[in-house]
What we know:
The protein has about 160 residues and is of the alpha+beta class.
Amino acid sequence: MLKKIGFGGGCHWCTEAYFQSLKGVERVEQGWINSIPPNNAFSEAVIVHFDTEIIPLKVLIGIHLHTHASTKNHSFREKYRSAVYVFDGEIEEAQKLSETYQTDFNEPIITKSLVFGQFKLNSEEHLNYYNKHKEGVFCERYISPKLKLIEKEYSAYLKQG
C-alpha cells in the first residue's frame, strides 16, 4: 500500500538523497513544510511516498533519526525543524516508532511528530540535488557519509546501484 510521510530535520538536499536511495520509496518531494501553530513556520523537509509492503514506516523513521541531529536543539531549528509530519492523523504511531530508537542515542530525541500543514516544492534546479552534484564538495562532505551509514545499517532496504 502506498503511503506518504514528511521528514524534516536537516538540509533537504541531504534528506532527499537518503530517502531516494531506498527500496520501496516511489518518490521524494523536496522543499519546505509546515504544521499547525506553533509549528507553522516553513522549514526544510521532504515528503516520502513509500510502499508499506516493501519498507515499513519504522525503518523510514529510524533512517531519519540516524541521519540528522535528532537530539540537538540548535539555533537553526526553525529552518531545520526535527519532525515527522503525518498525513493520516496517526501522530501517536509516529511518536511511538520514534521512541523505539531512543536506546540508540545518549541524549533524548527531540524529533516531534506533527500534523502535516502545507508543502512548497523547491525549484527545479535544486531538486534531485545529490544525483546532479555527487562529485561536489557539499555532497562528498555531508551526503555521501550518511549514505554509507544507511548502506551499513539498512542494507536490506538499499536500492542496487
